[in-house]
Amino acid sequence: MRTVVSAVLFVFLIPGFSFSQSISGVYKIDALIKRIENKDTTYVVNFWATWCKPCVEELPAFDSLSAELRGSHVKIILVSLDFKEDLQKKVNPFLYKHHIKSDCVLLDEVNGNNFIDKISPEWSGTIPATLMKLGDSTVFLEKKLKLHDLKNAILGLVKK
Question: Domain 27-159 carries which CATH code?
């Protein structure tokens, strides 16, 4: 028992340590858009799916950025486009297996025509896709991103 308590205390005392997580919420598009309306916060919203290889390859960059900017006015939100019925059997196990620690939500919309233009009129619907938003300024990128790409896009948005 003592060993378990010591291990738990050790984990919680490591700065920056966090557990892999599961989906923190299921959203309809209008609720997601409302969530990213705070004008004092820069939002980096990545649209991905467990079955999308380029999406999976870029997730560590978002996780690194999220850890690096923790406590700042930049919020990373990973938005899974997997089906809601796959949440418990596919999405949450995927997040655990890949040690994803960023805030992850699931978009509960089955018809892309209902939400794609609400995110960006530039969006063709392919993923990965990332919306960066600060107040009324936005940057939309429809490609796989690396950490330096993310940082440069955020800098460009902040300087607008």
Answer: 3.40.30.10
